[in-house]
Amino acid sequence: MIVEYKNVSVQGVNIFYREAGNKKNPTILLLHGFPSSSHMYRHLITELMDEYHIVAPDYPGFGNSDQPKMDEFEYTFDNFGLLINEFVETLKLEKFSIYVHDYGSPVGFRLAIKHPERIQAIITQNGNAYEEGLMSAWDPVRKYWENPTEENKNNLRSLLSLDFTTYQYTDGTRHPERISPDAWNMDQMVLDRPGNDEIQLALYYDYRNNLKQYPNWQEFFRTYQPPALAVWGKNDMFFGPKGALAFQKDLNDCEVHLLNTGHFPLEEELDTSAYLIKQFLRDRLTYHD
What total number of domains does the chain contain? Predict the structure, then answer.
């Protein structure tokens, strides 16, 4: 089996995605976080593609997808949700599990409440949907939400630096020397593109609207009861373990595993994550011949 690297035009934007596995197998839609792309799933895809059909897109302004100018494309999570929904329809993905990490959760949960009939299961790896999951690292961003001055905006620019991108990958890990610099260098290459900083700052500001959606997502969990697996890096500076455990308040079938690692668990706990995902989905999905 091989991984294919493809492009499709959605709303006039070139969307890059990785695809692997037999389309007759259950589909998993992998939705990436900040400041990453489908590159963060490069190893997970090869772990899962023997049993699943895997699709992993890059959002506009991330990875290998187009970066439309801000006056040509609205960089909001609502718009990402609409675009990825259209991407799903373009690829004719009728039913699938969503794997959400970081920014992937506001994108994925928007897909879920728009078309609950499509969602077979949820895998959340540091993909938050509860206020109690938000850690103090959000304080500078919250300050910008409450008072969107140029000064507060400029205070966030350090979050786009190579030092901070590196820190996101290594903080909370047991063995930082085992985390490949390819990961943060790949992300930083995109962050350093002309105009990308303003896109990321716009998304920081729009993130406040995700918190307003939390009650809607939680209502979806309670109403539709999708089986859920939370495989969480418990040392994440942004999304704490309380965010993982909170899913159990609303979901009857919710398995939680707190891993001793940071914001990007796949970098240090790939084998454990892949094993847990396979075990979880084997018990809950119906396979087709």
Answer: 1
User: Is 198 part of any domain?
Assistant: no
* Domain assignment present for 16: yes
State residue 96 phi and psi, 5-degree precision: -165, 160
Q: Model's pTM, two decimal places?
A: 0.97
The predicted-structure confidence for 199-241, as pLDDT tens digits, reads as follows: 999 999 999 999 999 999 999 999 999 999 999 999 999 999 9
Q: 176 pLDDT exceeds 90?
A: yes
AA letter at 47: E
The whole domain housing 112 covers 3-135+208-282
Averaged pLDDT score across all residues of the chain = 97
Q: Where are the beta strands (DSSP E) in the chain?
A: 3-10, 13-20, 27-31, 53-57, 96-100, 119-124, 228-233, 254-259
Q: Domain containing 104 — which CATH number?
A: 3.40.50.1820
Q: Which one of 32, 39, 101, 263 is the catalytic residue?
A: 263
Question: Is 175 a residue of the active site?
Answer: no
